[in-house]
Amino acid sequence: MVTSLPNLLTYSRIAAIPVLIALFYVPAPWAAWTCLVIYAAAAITDYLDGKLARAWNETSPIGRLLDPIADKMLVTAVLFMLAAFDRLQGWSVIPAVVILLREVLISGLREFLAGMNARGLPVTALAKWKTTIQMLAIGFLIVGDTGTRAFDGKLPVTEIGIAGIWVAAVLTLVTGWSYLREGVRQAITEDPRSPPPAKAAGTFG
After folding, report:
1. Who contacts 58 (Cβ-Cβ below 8 Å, separation ≥6)?
2. FRET pair for 80, CA 20 to 30 Å: which of 14, 55, 87, 177?
3. Closest CA to 99 of 22, 176, 47
4. Res 115: pLDDT
5. Spacing of C-alpha 181 from chain mean position
């Protein structure tokens, strides 16, 4: 159903994006913390929508379409804003570029394999760890120096976020290579006449 709870969670993730962008332009500590809360809530819906859709047997074509799109829109928008407001700068921009390029690669592979009626690319445990670390790192970077001041300078929030985004980028390269190999293998070996597999909503990873 278009208005099922899993789909509504996906819609909310898309709706949160312009709010997050607007909050970056508000030069006040409350805006940074509010941005973090909204981002965290959106990240949680990324986990819940697919899980609920499978548990309640409410998977739908619109959910399968919008869920990965919402994920990539959210991450792309926030990474761009972090770079625009110098939370990511210099060498620290490189992991963000790696993460975004990997998303383009995986999206292209999944679309190609779907057209072949291939099995697709199942989300691996390492990819889930990558996503978790990436989400946490982005959260630290959103609050940045505001978070450091809140802890009286005792917690290097921005530095933790930058370290986390580098770790996520390394895992991005590893999982991206794994997905690429699997995609090429399926493209070579799959029978295009076979029926498409049943796919569940949710692409956490």
Report:
1. 1, 4, 5, 6, 52
2. 177
3. 176
4. 72
5. 21
> What pLDDT score was predicted for residue 46?
78
pLDDT value for 31: 96
Question: Tokens 């802890």 label which residue?
Answer: 151
Cβ-based neighbours of 19, under 8 Å, separated by 6 or more:
38
> What per-residue confidence (pLDDT) applies to 67?
79
Task: Give the span between the Cα atoms of 135 and 129, in whole angstroms.
Answer: 10
- Look at residues 107, 131, 143 and name the one whose alpha carbon lies nearest to residue 20: 143
Residues of the chain with pLDDT under 50: 192-193, 195-202
122 closest CA partner among 54, 31, 37, 202: 202
Residue 195: burial class (beta carbons within 10 Å; 0-12, 13-18, 19+):
exposed
Helix, strand, coil percentages, rounded to 5, for the chain: 75, 0, 25
**Domain extents in the chain:** 1-75, 86-192
